[in-house]
Amino acid sequence: MLKTRSFSPETLFSWHKPFGNDTTPVSVTPKPVFHRKKNNFRVRRNARNIKAISPILTPTPTTTPVETRTPQKVTAVVTVQKPGFLTNIRWSKVQDDLTEVFGRTLLLEFFSAELDPETGSEKETIKGYARRAGQDEDDNVKYEFAFVLPSEFGDIGAVRVVNEIHIEMYFKNIKVLDSSNGDVCLNMSCNSWVQSKFVSPEKRTFFTNKSYLPFETPSGLNKLRQDDLKAVRGNGEGERKSSERIYDYDVYNDIGDPDSPDTVRPVLGGNEHPYPRRCRTGRPKSTNDLSSETRSSSNYVPRDEAFSAVKQRTFYRKTAYSVLQVLLPILLREIRNGDVGFPNFTAIDTLYEQEDTEFTVQSNGIIGYLLIQLAKIILRFDIPEVVKRDYFSWFTDEEFSRETLAGLNPCSLQLVTDWPLRSKLDPEIYGSPESLITKKLVEQEIGGFMTLEEVMQNPSCIRSSQQGGGAEEEVTAGIRGGVGAATMMWQRRLGGGGRGGLDQGCDGGKREATVVVEGRVGEIRGLVVSGEADGLYMDGGGGGLQKAEGCDDEGVRQLGRNCRVEFYNQSLPRNMPQDLIRYFHHGHRLKRSNILNMQALEKKKLFMLDYNDLLLPYVNEIRELEGTTLYGSRTLFFLTEKGTLRPLAIELTRPPGNGKPQWKHVYRPCTDATGSWLWKLAKAQVLAQESGYHQLVSHWLRTHCAMEPYIIATNRQLSTMHPIYRLLHPHCRFTMEINALARQSLINAGGIIESSFSPGKYSMQLSSAVYELQWRFDQQALPADLIARGMAQEDPTSPHNLKLTIEDYPFANDGLILWDAINEWVTDYVKHYYPNESLVKSDQELHAWWKEIRTVGHEDKKEGWPTLKTPEDLIGILTTIIWVASGHHSAVNFGQYAYAGYFPNRPTIARNKMPNEDPSDEEWTSFLENPDGELLKCYPSQIQATQVMAVLDILSNHSPDEEYIGANISPSWEENLYIKSAFEVFKAKIELLGNTIDERNEDNSLKNRFGAGVVPYELLKPMSEKGVTGMGVPNSISI
Ligand SMILES: [Fe+2]
């Protein structure tokens, strides 16, 4: 027999440890509900009266037998949000007024928590109309229903309501008061819309604030629990109406419009274009493609997911809705050609702070004049923080690098772990996979930071590579014109087995490049040869010959002109004299740069933004679009002694296509004028790619889009009385609505993303490709994300159990504090409700929820899902979801205007190719004569820039009713002393994080967040004022 769960002070105040223990039995007996009075005394419903009890924890009282109770006079008070002004302008108002006069606005029906113990059936319910009883200080309308609670009724478990008037009503809460003294006996938080019975005849059920796992559900509520879940799942048929609360799934089949030739887009979701699911709307299919839905001016979301009135007002005012929906399309047509760039940087500056713009319109006379004046009035932007603090920062390499760690997209940078850099794409299609960023180039760039002497002090890894195409001059000479064979000889001074082996492998008399390392070099762990490897073998150090990696037939054919030899040695002695290492080629000594000391790799000092393999497959298609261009790109950074990054090189690659061969070029920071301008232009190309990746992946895909299936599953599979539903609910607020708005005007065909970002109409396909190639649930956790990118490694001795590769990495440093705080709060919460593993295993709703997320909401992703068997599994899953909704989203969202509002700092599109890519004489001359003009031509057009600026301003904005993480306790948490206390600890940690961030931003040693003109890193500072503040971590993705 199950016993009542008991608690002790030890378990109550044992934070970070499970509440209870694995052997703690769990009660199936309903316990008295604790409530909170305004005077901080709680009251509890018992048999004979309402008693005030101390707020200090007392042992859980046993339930008083129902039969000993006496009838009790109580009053139910329903608090409803005051209807908006517009809802009063309607023909049915007179009818509703009459209904109210007769006191029949709301019909309430109370359910006992328990079944009749004798008959096993539901006890008789208590029904009655609630009369209007006035308004409170916040203008909420109160309705009251007084009744007698019979002694045999027991505890109230739920209430069902019928809205008898013609307009929907927003229920805030329902309280049951003791009529004799006004004490609160029962509290039901509703925060939900109840539709008119004339619109939705189904009755609506609200449960008490006490949370129950499925098997704990009081007997009288089981059916109501199931019925309510069925109601929100719907039947998957028909078109959804805005008044409904049905949560269901569909693919992204409404971002294009197959009925219009220019806006045909593939359906996202399914084998061809894997993607998360979105909310099903059930709109009619399009005429030309039955797999797509017709588009609509408004997308359905369940009623409770829609913006609040305050949020809606703020959103549309802030968005300058008219700008997006009315003015800009007009301007788009009127502005000359629609694709005019900015004539000079002064013209860009005039966009800000009420200065005159340089817009020119086609229309003459009064219309043209009015359009210009309108544009001047509306198109005024605040000066973004990044240029407010330092007008020239956008131009500098320092800021370019710093923003990879502390800017708008701090989650793309990765540690370089493999060398040489090499594409994994098919060379037959994309050309040579070898990067032109060679060891020689890197060593030239890091000269002065790393020397060969340093190398030899701790040469735990030495590699040598030789490559065709001029990258390694000496070695290349050996293979040019020949058959391309390259061999590396390794010889021990006191042993010769290696040489013999290699000689044997080089059978065929091909040209040789020879490296002789004299001395006790220890064991060679591996020799990797790729290239014309027909006869190449390696000596793995043990004397036996192995065919070298990459030496299959395919390799022989493909790599004849591009040979590579890599030589790993894991155990060279630290004090080996340099002169014992000699490098020979055909008997001639080689420059030492041909042996790339990858100390920089070993010391974890090389980092990269790698958009090469991701973007190359799209380059040719995107280049066929008008007004945009694209390259595959690699941007290499070096971590300096100051802990800041310095860019070393940018490689841009165009794959073969349209009759042209592969083209690639490496740009470097330069001291000559031409090289310097090319470097700036290359940075603009990379920044445009960064902007696209940020918006389509780091922001949209990883937060907004990935989150929607979690929200749908949470509503469909977890009852509103389930503790995990109540934990997650604050983190779901408004996400579906903002996503629906995004499908309308941001990510749709011809929307702002397509029209203003480099990938154009392929934008969402690119997002789908990343979902397929990169996205995994188990790497959305911040620690896992950092480890996967090589930005951290596990270390039990470090804070957060992670050693950061770059110590001053503001996103990671602040994010990990937030991550840990969330994790500890979730741990306390989960372990309270699931003190042992068996409770997780037996929770059917929980398993249905997790299964639906994996197999329906994210059905295209088969890997990367943790199992859900233990409380620890659940804690990991929930912490990840909450982190994504709060910390991750805030880090990539609320800095959008601060960093990208001045578009030269983060252009969203590169409209022109590099001037040195197959230039005509005229193009090259134009570049030489007017290089800044080339940059302006590459930047977004006027209309693109202003559209994006307006959108970023909107997306960076906090609504006045924003709910920040750790700020407000939910009513159901507040009524549980354990949860309440755990939340207070969480709240304290969150407040402390704000202080810590302030301190860090004043720390002179943290160069990536402090310095002259540097924007302090505040994106993970939890609280914020309303507006565009560049800080604040809301609970949910609400913008
Ligand atoms: Fe967002």
UniProtKB/TrEMBL annotation:
Its EC number is 1.13.11.-. Keywords: Dioxygenase, Fatty acid biosynthesis, Fatty acid metabolism, Iron, Lipid biosynthesis, Lipid metabolism, Metal-binding, Oxidoreductase, Oxylipin biosynthesis. Residues 211-1039 form the Lipoxygenase domain. It is an enzyme of class 1 (oxidoreductase). Transmembrane segments: none annotated. One of its GO terms (biological process) is lipid oxidation. Residues 85-208 form the PLAT domain. This is Lipoxygenase. It comes from Escallonia rubra.
